[in-house]
Amino acid sequence: MSGRNRATGWQHAKLSGHENEALIAQLTKKNKALQNRILKCAHINDVAVVDVEYGGLAEKNVDCIFSGKKTKSKTDMSLFLSNGERLNVSIKKERSGQVFLIGIDRFIQGFERQYLQTIPSAVKRAIALYFGSAHDIPEVIFKCATSRIDMQTKKHRLVAETLKAYDFNLANILISWINANISNLFDFCFSRGLAKNKKDYAQIIWYKNMLGENELDKLIYLPDILKRVPPTAEYGNKNGGSTIQLPFGFVQWHSPSKKTPGSLQFHHNYSKIVDLLP
Fold it and tell me: What gap in Å lies between CA 240 and CA 53, rounded to an integer?
């Protein structure tokens, strides 16, 4: 993305992503061998693909887990099958990149509703400090931060070393909760998102690029690795621990509009995900 600033870079990535999805959908629609390969990936036998659709720029929002709301689906392409079922595919054209961007409160409430659990108050407090929605962050930075003070102040968030200095147990509670819920977090990021209905969940990740930028072409059936995601999350070792490294990528503070509080930006990593395959 030489010559582009961050905003135009994201716009280019989004538009080229839709172009890639359109090419893949067109190829899949007319290629029976490719359709069978996708069905085989999902362990589906004795059915045929009767239609292929993708959303692209005209993608329609789906019912959201929050009553009366709509949301974006994790699905980029759908294969409609002869048995009346639907097989949904999430397409990634790069080995790494954003997979889920979600606000702090929306993350907490959405996760609780999707998985019918209550996130402990200590974990919510740690999330608020680390990702920037706690009102007392300036005070904590003043009392506890020993480095990267300007960065934390500007972003209105704590990095791991400051969170540990403030409350070491609280910092550990956040990582422990992530590891205890790592399979659901993977599912949340790649399959469900905030979609209400199972028919809108993604079931396959397809790493494929038809724009000539790389030679990716890997189908991954999400249920095959859902229970294999290991509890290995930990704070990153750069910038005082400004990211949380995950077994499928990482999560960091991010604010596209440069406003505070920021959001949770989950990133996927092809090599990490492939390593989870049986």
Answer: 45
| Distance separating alpha carbons of residues 28 and 79, to the nearest angstrom | 9
Residues 248, 133 within the same domain: yes
Determine the structural domain holding residue 211 and report its residue range: 6-95+197-226
**Predicted confidence (pLDDT) per residue in 214-227, tens digit:** 899 999 999 999 99
pLDDT < 50: residue spans in the chain: 1-3, 9
Q: Give the total number of structural domains in the chain.
A: 2
pLDDT at position 163 is 98
pLDDT, tens digit, 9 for 90 and up, residues 82-93: 999 999 999 999
Structure-token pair, residue 54: 């993708």
Q: How far apart are CA 207 and CA 109, in angstroms?
A: 30
E strand or H helix that includes residue 119: none
pLDDT reported for residue 74: 96
Strands (E), 96-216: 96-103, 204-208
Do 89 and 108 lie in a common domain?
no
Q: Is 100 helix (H, G, I), strand (E, B) or coil?
A: strand
> Is 191 a domain residue?
no
SS3 273: helix
Classify residue 121 as exposed, middle or buried by CB count within 10 Å of its CB (0-12, 13-18, 19+): exposed
Q: State the pTM of this model.
A: 0.93
